[in-house]
Amino acid sequence: MRIRLIAKNANEISGISNYARQLHATYQAAGVESMLDSPDPTPIPGWIMRGAKAVGYDLSAFFRSYPLTVQDAPDTIVHLTSQTLGTTLTFRHPARTVITVHDILPYMLRNVAELNHYRHHIERFFDSLAMRNLKKADVIVADSAYTKQTLIDILRISGEHIHVVHLGIDHTRFRPIPAADLTRKRFGLPEGVPLVLYVGSEAPRKNLSTLIDALQSVRAAHPDVMLVKVGRPQFDTERQRLIEQVAQRGLADNVIFLDEVGLDDLVALYNLCDVFVLPSLYEGFGFPALEAMACGTPVVAANAASLPELVGDAALTVDPRSSEHIADAVGRLLNSAELRADLSSRGKAHVTQFTWERTARLTLAAYDTSLSAG
């Protein structure tokens, strides 16, 4: 079996690119012939590229996410490792095609003004094209049962062609480590104060505004509590709105935004913090919750979308639309070392099932379906 993994940018530091690299490395370690490649470049006249860039639109980056062609090869399974690569199926369909769908949230939320992801009508058009093309794949791999159900309910794709394969995490990296004082000092985190961690973007569906309102309630019992938000700003308008909300709530001394954090420091932050919170309204697969568990950090997660499926009974789950529920869960953990220790232990045990070896094994089983169908 020869596998050609297609990633929009195999060298990019992102969850999706890491997924492709992890599959490739695990396949090779198992003796499976695997290639890691990028889609064909989309030919765009230079004058169009320059004109678009002049108005703040990077067409080169855009067509890495929404390419139009990918080369086929004899006796090879072409695995498109992200749903946006479905645009490559517009004109040609490789003989054996597998596509991984991490989520279809931008498409799902396209008509919800406050949660709409699209920055431009062209992006909306191409994403819709990618979504329509998903049914052309021989096999779809979905990150979660939740994502599978959205494909069935919203895109009307037959469930028999969709395989649920949870992603893995790197347990050699995400693990309990001694408190990292250098990381604490580098980011200006005071000692002896309760630390609440969030990792991710400010996308409206991540629901950070409700978390900030919850923090205001937590501060009543823990005046020095600090929310550490990790992740570079991907939505500038939303970042500014959150900064304004923090100021309006009088929380300027209780919230810190850390934009550029390396992987080693991220692991250290998971270990330093007392509680990790993921309050998303919609999530295809919540990597940070699992990474926090692997580091032994107690987790509070929304009881929405894929998160209950992923965290099981190893986290406190809350109504993400209720700042009171979030505040109550965070407060319970900050007030009880016993509860923190219990969730830490349960989280570390629960997360052992999420390995890249298991992900690769189940994905290979999905390929077998493609081969037998062909």
Folded structure, characterized:
With 374 residues, this protein is an alpha/beta fold. The protein has two domains: 2-168 and 355-373, Glycogen Phosphorylase B (Rossmann fold), CATH 3.40.50; 181-353, Glycogen Phosphorylase B (Rossmann fold, 3-Layer(aba) Sandwich). The protein is 43% helix and 14% strand. The chain contains 15 helices and twelve strands. It has helices at residues 15-29, 46-54, 59-65, 105-108, 121-133, 145-155, 181-186, 208-221, 236-248, 263-272, 287-294, 307-311, 323-335, 337-350, 356-373, and strands at 2-6, 33-37, 76-80, 97-101, 139-142, 162-164, 195-199, 226-230, 255-258, 275-278, 299-302, 316-318. The strands form two sheets. Strands 2-1-3-4-5-6 form a six-stranded parallel sheet. It has a six-stranded parallel sheet with strand order 9-8-7-10-11-12, with helices on both faces. Helix 6 links the parallel strand 5 and strand 6 (162-164). Helix 1 (15-29) packs across helix 15, helix 8 packs across helix 13 (323-335) and helix 11 packs across helix 14 (337-350). The radius of gyration is 21 Å and the shape is globular. The two termini are 13 Å apart. The model has no long low-confidence stretch (mean pLDDT 90).
